[in-house]
Amino acid sequence: MSTEIATTPSTLLAAIVESSDDAIISTTLDGLVTFWSPAAERMFGYAATEMIGRPVVTIIPPALVDKERALISRLAENGRMVRNESIRVRKGGQQLKVAATFSPVRDEAGTIVEILSIVHDVTEAQPSDLVRRESGERFRVMADATPVMIKSAGVDGELDFVNKAFLEFTGRRMDETLGIGWAEDIHPEDLQGCFEFRITAFCERRLFQHEYRLRRHDGEYRWIIDTDVPRFDADGKFIGYVGSNVDITDRKRAEELDARINERTRIARELHDTLLQSFHGLLLRFQTAYSLLPSRPEEAREILEKAINAATKAIIEGRDAVQALRSSTAEANDLAAAIKTFGEELTASESDSISPAFRVEVEGKPRNLHPIRREEVHRIAAEALGNAFRHARARNIEVEIRYEEQQFRLRVRDDGKGIDPEVLSATGRDGHFGLHGMKERAEIANGKLEIWSRDGAGTEIELTIPAASAYRAVRPSTQFAPKFLSTANGVE
What we know:
The protein is of the alpha+beta class. It has helices at about 10-15, 40-45, 50, 65-80, 130-145, 165-170, 175, 190-205, 250-290, 295-325, 335-350, 370-390, 420-425, 435-445, 465-470, 480-490; strands spanning about 25-30, 35, 80-90, 95-105, 110-120, 150-155, 160, 210-215, 220-230, 240-245, 355-365, 395-405, 405-415, 450-455, 460-465. Helices cover about 45% and strands about 25% of the residues. Helix 8 runs antiparallel to helix 16, helix 9 (about 250-290) packs antiparallel against helix 10 and helix 11 runs parallel beside helix 12 (about 370-390).
């Protein structure tokens, strides 16, 4: 059963928090309210329309404002969740005693952009067991009413609830799904990465979102975007996650189609701007030489010699382009080995001249790069090396790969003739798109490309990508959900 949902995971989670008795508030780092849950409306008496865009200090007593700002400042600096008991002020002036949990919200690059606070009113003691049971029942009723897959997990990461839509999607019974039973439907290629990502997020107690393939009841694997938010009890203690799964297969297919079309367009553009233009120029030279043969044979011969040299260069450019296109993704899993192989092939092709010394250096402990980033890094390195071997007339060409804590770094250096300043400022020679293409690939990889060069002083190309974008999630501690790790590794 497949249901089209015209909404987003964040919208779904906003609907889910409506069942919470705790106020959920999101603010910018400057303290402006960006989200104000229904529970916040009930707790503080302000409607969302009154508070969104206003300073959150509206509900904080003046005497406590500086203390609260210092707390948020520390959180923004160290990125660690903070729990705090304080006082808040309702609309009309009534004071409430609250227990609040503050968590950082990060963007795709890992930068903290907002603060999420969950506020529990502890002014009066309540029968906690009854409240929890009523809240849990409301959540289950609402979750079963939505066509989106909803689930919740405990502190060990194992599912303790899934809604009807989840069961209908997988075709499994509840008892087959809870715990880690649902993991049997994850695509084998995604299983380990999925669990490692989830457990890392569990350990850090942060909101997370990731994509993987999940088997539907008819046996087809569908791409899922899984969004989960942490839950805390009245005392600020972590009690697990609640999240949603949305089928994004159709969107992924559309994106892949666009990517293939863009890649074909790029290849067509490169062929047009290199090979086809080169051959068109050769044809004009041959025609000129042919017309001069009867009356001016020596001039015709000189034109033919130049045409032959141009043809040789065109063949080299075509060979390098094909070599870059057929670069093996599997081999690129070992980035240093793939780049070294590519450079050695270019070295071997320089048999008619003195080949430059070529080497690849790796600094830091190698880490797994995100597949898309790895492919773009490899293509950028291949383009830079192709330019260095073809045009630089260098004695030495080196590649440096650095796995740093905060970022990934790639450098390609040569001691050749350098790049003409006009060519560099124009991002490439007229009719050639190598430098421009590298900058485009750097943007796709969420990175930054810089080029330094001077006439006679060589060229250095540096690519940097923030760690949050470059690296796959590191393997977490087995403190949480050890069954997940054993399942992902195929251990019973």
